[in-house]
Specification:
Structural class: alpha/beta
Bound molecules: NADP nicotinamide-adenine-dinucleotide phosphate
CATH class of the largest domain: Alpha Beta
CATH architecture of the largest domain: 3-Layer(aba) Sandwich
Number of helices: 11
Largest sheet: 8 strands, mixed
Helix content: 40-55%
Length: 274
Amino acid sequence: MEGAHVVIVGSGNLSHALVTRWMTSPHIAGLQVLARSERYRVKGWSQAAMRVVTEDDQCLKDTDIVVLAVKPKDAVQALQHVAQVSPGVRVLLSVAAGVTIAQIRTILPASGIVRTMPNICSQVGRSVTGVAFDGVNSLDRQIVLELLHELGQTTETPESLLDPMTALFGSGPAYVLVFLRSIVDTAIKFGMEPDVARQLALQMVLGTSELALSESHDSLEHIVSRVVSPGGTTEAMLDVLQSKGWQNIMESALSAAAERAIQLGALAPLSGRA
Ligand SMILES: NC(=O)c1ccc[n+]([C@@H]2O[C@H](COP(=O)([O-])OP(=O)(O)OC[C@H]3O[C@@H](n4cnc5c(N)ncnc54)[C@H](OP(=O)(O)O)[C@@H]3O)[C@@H](O)[C@H]2O)c1
């Protein structure tokens, strides 16, 4: 089949990441972003991405896939708008945290519905993305998977796991970036140039991921143990992390994010949230 016609509703950060990746997709015949304001112009959108933005909702007509990329609190209004202009939309693909398939189905009873959670690394094709389908035929399912694969690694999952996956992998880049910022700030305190510190910290995370990927048969714990010499620098660092309750801090942070995903879904005033 020829490429799909895709309209993304919402012109925020995630929408920009999707557009950047999909603009050159061989699986897409037409791509537009439906914006409700011109705020995207001050949000760092590239010139090329801005070219596909429109405020004309007629783009919703005759499209194959509508992507819901608005905040959960705005999901109802945006979905009602889609249903009004294009009641028989073929596939509605939602990236809105916490908004359930059942909630979406109350507004679009006859559409194929896809709930998914890519992360911001979609922009460079390195997202890890969970996806759940409901009422989607096999052809459309294949098209959606092709589009999601272009954003990075995609894993089909029961919908019940999407809230925790939102916390772990949707918010995940922020944990990694905060961690990197701590390293860079400390490196600067030690006297390193900021640019050099940043470059080295980024390469270190990349290198560590590549090493662990290349040794996926080995446990993470064992790979850690290979960096730790008794009485050495790494052990001194790990001792401090352990004494400060690092594992508990991470568990609390991830649990708070998962809980928030559920609360955000409840903010979308729709039935269908268990
Ligand atoms: N950012 C991430 O890393 C990430 C990762 C995974 C999933 N998500 C999910 O993606 C969704 C969007 O997140 P975001 O970070 O991109 O938020 P954002 O930057 O605040 O963007 C939301 C966009 O939705 C627009 N919008 C709201 N109602 C609309 C409507 N009825 N019609 C058209 N546009 C409408 C807003 O317009 P204005 O500009 O006029 O306000 C804004 O451009 C959220 O549900 C979030 O859970 C985000």
